[in-house]
Amino acid sequence: MLEHILAMGVPYMLMAFLAGMGAGVFYFGGLWWTVRRLPTARQPALLTLGSFLVRTGLSLAVFYVVSGGHWERILASLLGFMIMRGFLVRRVRSAPAKVTTN
User: Is the pTM above the cut of 0.90?
Assistant: First the structure.
């Protein structure tokens, strides 16, 4: 299996991993942005649905384009996506909460 991955090319796997990290930043950053805007949104359901569709659609498009039909690249991009998720969750949890009063 390792020979197969190495024969595929490390640059392609690295590109897939980095693209997955970028998709993770977009997806989870967009989720954080959406959650922060919900209390003041005029139509929170529309914001939630629209954000979900855009985030999911773009992330799936990145996985599809980067994969090039190779399952190994999809795994590399999913690994980058999940690593970025873990990083962002830890970062958000450690950030001090801002209290707003209206």
Answer: no
